[in-house]
Amino acid sequence: MLDPLSEVVTLLRPRTVFTKGISGAGRWGVRYADFGQPSFCTVIEGSCLLAVDGEEPVTLLAGDFVLLPATPGFTISGFEPAPLTAIDPKTMPAPAEEVRHGDPEGDPDVRLLGGYFVFDSPDVDLLVPLLPPLVHLRGAERLATLTRLVGEEALDAMAGRDLVLSRLVEVLLIEALRAAQGEGAPPGLLRGLGEARLASALRQLHGDPARPWTVGALAKDAGMSRSVFFDRFTRVLGIPPMEYLLRWRMALARDLLRAGRIGLAEVAERVGYGSSSAFSVAFSRHTGVTPGRYARLSAA
User: Fold this and answer.
1) Distances (CA, A) of 89 to 71, 115, 117, 230
2) Distance in angstroms (rounded) separating the CA atoms of residues 126 and 145
3) Element (H or E) spanning 220, and its range?
């Protein structure tokens, strides 16, 4: 049976990694503007404060790992009040060396290795909302090792660099996201996968998206009544079961249309529609363009 988390990460197609060293000393604080692309960091030594828009501030300690799948605005600082330096990552040139904030002399109070990448998929708006806005993990040694490997590979020019980077980032993402599963996760895919009965239903949906699923059939598979399953799924995933299925079918359809290897009728069949016309109506309503036009635009 297919693994929903691996499928989502694969469909997002992470690529193009940029990494940098960051350190801070004395009184310092930096305000990063909304970036929109996924970013990550691991704390090599020391500690600092992180305040992500819409989330509770957290203290970062040595060995911590942070992932922001959509990177809203955030502030990172020392523990003493200080004026904030404004940085817009969309316009700031990539630094060639470690970035020091605060006192430029002496040993830093904190050192981090951070970076960002992009999701090379037009389905980002469909898939990223299924992930938590902030992943903060303590003592994440495996992720710290992966982050260092990503940083080393990003600075190297060896043959196969792009392929190695894309695979490393996929592993880093899956490792971070599966470590964040469970009741403590915010509503979304990770929290759903942390509950055995909902995880079973999710694997069924991903394993056979073309099946004419109903809430009753999924509830039966999960061993719940229809009403209990619907309420539980909606509360834990943040969207109703059939809306989740529709999002997943549309993401798969867009991926198949971009590939251009099969005709419209087969695409419709693979994502659970009995006719090309029914699929075209659903696709157009969801994306704003017809399947044929979407395929032509993707090819162009």
Assistant:
1) 10, 11, 12, 41
2) 30
3) helix 215-222
Distance of CA 236 to the CA centre of its chain: 18
Domains observed in the chain: 4-179 (2.60.120.280), 189-299 (1.10.10.60)
Residue 212 has φ and ψ, to the nearest 5°, of: -75, 75
pLDDT tens digits for range 172-194 = 888 888 888 766 677 788 888 88
> Alpha carbon of 20 to those of 17, 41, 72, 96, 289: distances in Å?
10, 9, 19, 8, 40
pLDDT above 70: residue 2: no
Q: What is the pLDDT of residues 238-283, one digit of tens each?
A: 999 999 999 999 989 998 998 888 899 999 999 999 999 999 999 9
DSSP for 8-59 reads: HHHHH-EEEEEEEEEEEESS-EEEEPP--S-EEEEEEEEEEEEEETTS--EE
Q: Rounded distance, CA 175 to CA 109, Å?
A: 28
CB-based burial, 213-235: b 16+ in 10 Å, e otherwise = bebeebbebbebeeeebbebbee
